[in-house]
Amino acid sequence: MSHRGITSTNFSIADLALAQTGRHQISLAQNEMPGLMAIRAEYAQSQPLAGARISVSLSITVQTAVLVETLVALGARVRLASCNIFSSQDEAAAALVVGSGTSESPAGISVFGWKGESSKEFWWCLDQILDWSNYPDADGNTHPGPTSIIDDGGDLIYLVHQGIEFEKSGVLHRQNSWIESEHEIVRELLAASQSKNPTRFATLVSQVIGASEETTTGIQRLEELSRKGELKFPVINVNDAVTKSKFDNKYGIRHSLVDGLNRATDVLIGGKVAFVAGYGDVGKGCAEALAGQGARVIIGEIDPICALQAAMDGYQVAQLEEVIEQLDFVITATGNIDIVRPEHFLKLKNLAILANVGHFDNEIDMHGLEALEGAQKVQIKPLVDQWTLPNGRSILVLSEGRVMNLGNATGHPSFVMSASFTNQAMAQIELAQNATNLEPRVHLIGKLADEKVARLHLPALGVSLTKLSERQAGYISVPVEGPYKPDQYRY
């Protein structure tokens, strides 16, 4: 696989010359990621990840760079690929490859990814980080694959599982999120792997002790595997840690949605009408951000509980079809398919803006848009496309229907990602120390660990926690040191 950037055995990125720019940004991000830096300090001596080989599929951002270098600082070796074709920051990738000359990144990290990959390049990059055969350790030993995985969206873990099934049957099952061309790309990749090594994935999975998953979409896919009894190793559910789902999902998108809209179009949000499809944690953050800019926000929901929350938060709740002609912005945040379809495109106001913040690109039916007879696309600037429709109106689509806060902007801010990624680091430590005691299913992060992640971030915000007395703790039947809420508490 080749692209216009720089490729070697152990990295493939856009431009090594961006390394210094990336290193400056990583240094700034470290100051805003107190949780990860505290984990580095706490475990620097004990090296709980010594010997770990971690294949990581996350957006290649400066925040991910801080996580990856934290894993290295705790003893791990890492191979990193992007989880989305538009979500890489090329300067962060370059900085990781070149390294910092410190203990966290002494000789660089193996990175495969660049902004603007094709689907074929995306899957090639994922395949590369599963192959450790040309990446010897300090003693010169090589290994076929990783000991653990960090994933965002479930594609990497799914590739491993599909690889095993393909080696057995020669059949690749079509995933709901894949279009036919993507299915064929993965099938060709697995066929090439099988012809070279018929038992590669079986051997690979025998060495994987576990994984941790970052997103709602990924957890949905892995829970399905778990229910069928097909999950080959334990997976720690980082997404549903309170300090992830109630922080990254809500407060992160509250920041990065508006950032992406402004960088993409610089269209005034105040006074306009915005429709947010989905009022889960991500949708709540979207609605709050748009309302904070002065937009009138309408929510679309299937869940009566979330719909009631939206109504009591002061938002109109309606079906898209009821309000379609009023809308200036349509934001999809559902994790489902076919939310905005061709019949909707034709009813939108002229130059209405469509943007998706879900993991996959099928919430806005881009293939239906492309198939509209007479529809024509003009690129206004990278990842901002004006589609002229058969009715003479135009709409603006951001990031080709993919996750726009990473495509049109740089994703969530460092501080909120520190909470998410501190969970990831702690999950990997848990796997290294306790994976043999974990069943091959999806596991939640415990309340005490969740509270620890929050606690690590409080000093940076000047927070002073009230402390329970023994009498108070006894009165509400909790330990003085926590956890303070029962498992069923919803926050």
Per-chain topology:
Blueprint: E1 6-8, E2 11-13, H1 19-31, H2 34-43, E3 53-57, H3 62-73, E4 77-81, H4 90-98, E5 110-112, H5 119-130, E6 148-151, H6 155-169, H7 180-196, H8 200-206, E7 210-213, H9 216-227, E8 235-237, H10 242-245, H11 248-264, E9 273-277, H12 281-292, E10 296-300, H13 304-312, E11 316-317, H14 320-323, E12 329-332, H15 342-345, E13 352-356, H16 366-371, E14 376-381, E15 384-388, E16 394-398, H17 404-407, H18 414-434, E17 442-444, H19 447-457, H20 470-476
Parallel strand pairs: 3-4, 3-6, 4-5, 6-7, 7-8, 8-17, 9-10, 9-12, 10-11, 12-13, 13-16
Antiparallel strand pairs: 1-2, 14-15, 15-16
Assign the CATH topology of the largest domain. Rossmann fold
Share of residues in strands: 5-15%
Helix content: 40-55%
CATH class category label of the largest domain: Alpha Beta
Number of domains: 2
Biggest β-sheet: strands ordered side by side in the sheet: 11-10-9-12-13-16-15-14
First-to-last CA distance? 47 Å
Q: CATH superfamily assignment of the largest domain?
A: Adenosylhomocysteinase-like
Shape annotation: globular
Overall mean confidence score, pLDDT: 94
